[in-house]
Amino acid sequence: MDVRKAKKYAKELVNKLAKEELEEVHEELYEVVSLFDEKAIKYLSSPAVDKKEKFDFVKKILDKLDITIELKEVLLEMAEKGDFHLIKVVEQEFKKYVDFILGRVQAELISTTNLDKETLKFVKEQVEKISGKKVGLNVTIDPSIIGGFIVKVGDRVIDASIKTQLETIKRELAE
Questions:
Q1: Which residue among 20, 90, 110, 134 is buried most deeply as judged by most CB within 10 Å?
Q2: What Cα–Cα distance (Å) separates residue 157 from each residue in 36, 70, 107, 127, 145?
Q3: What string of pLDDT tens digits covers the 175 residues of the chain?
Q4: Residue of 104, 105, 108, 106 whose CA lies nearest to 151
Q5: Which DSSP string corresponds to 30-44?
Q6: Residues whose CB falls within 8 Å of the CB of residue 120, separated by 6 or more in sequence, listed in order
Q7: How far lies 74's CA from each of 14, 15, 98, in Å?
């Protein structure tokens, strides 16, 4: 149910904006999300806290920010309806809409260490060739893969990790 509500708010925001504004507004929304830690989200989702009190809390913060009027309207509507605790999900859903509209896919690169800019650029270019779309690359560090890398694009996975290679060899030896 929460995801459906979040999609509704995300779509409402998309419909208020021109295509050229989507990227900038997403950055603004991401910054707003970063202001609300788990404690604030818990406060905003608590049924014990009065809706008006929650709205005033959110409004006070939003009034201090320099954000697009359309974004502010949607966020205030969420606060008014008691749905502001869904802001992180709204941001994720909005990002999906923006990626779709701009013809972009998100890829996750999992590596054991931070990679240099040239390597990241190379991986991004290769994923763009494979997918035929612009790619946003999110990097995750995971020492448990031992070495190599894993790239995830949608439901496709390119696993060139040493951990997977070792597991494959172990399975083959066991047969």
A1: 90
A2: 32, 37, 10, 11, 14
A3: 789 999 999 999 999 999 999 999 999 999 999 999 999 999 999 999 999 999 999 999 999 999 999 999 999 999 999 999 999 999 999 999 999 998 888 889 999 988 889 988 998 998 899 888 888 888 999 999 988 889 998 788 888 888 888 888 888 888 8
A4: 108
A5: HHHHHH--HHHHHHH
A6: 109, 137, 139
A7: 10, 11, 16
Q: What angle do CA 127, 24, 11 make, to 5 degrees?
A: 85
Cα 55 from Cα 82, distance rounded (Å): 8
Q: Cβ of 109: how many Cβ atoms within 10 Å?
A: 22
Cα pseudo-dihedral 128, 18, 8, 40, rounded to 10 = 90
Residue position matching structure tokens 């970063």: 34
Residue showing tokens 């290769």: 126
User: Would strands 134-141 and 104-111 be described as parallel, antiparallel, or unpaired?
Assistant: parallel
| Distance from the Cα of residue 150 to its chain's centroid | 19
- Consecutive H or E run containing 9: helix 2-16
